Amino acid sequence: MLKINKEKCIGCGLCAAICPEGAKLGEDGKAEVIESEKLQGCGGKTICPYEAIEE
Length: 55
Ligand code: SF4
What we know:
Number of helices: 2
Bound molecules: iron/sulfur cluster
CATH class: Alpha Beta
Structural class: alpha+beta
Number of strands: 4
Strand order of the largest sheet: 1-4
Number of domains: 1
Shape: globular
CATH architecture: 2-Layer Sandwich
Order of helices and strands: EHEEHE
């Protein structure tokens, strides 16, 4: 189950751009997981250069 570490996320939007069904930017400007399995399918933790996607 993937989740976003909001302390590490800088809101660059890369995860949402790569995987719009898996993640989106929330109202706080940080990423949110829409569907963990989809995000995993797009590369999961490896997507985020800031290591903000965690299991
Ligand atoms: Fe946040 Fe990482 Fe997604 Fe960028 S790629 S919005 S830093 S979780």
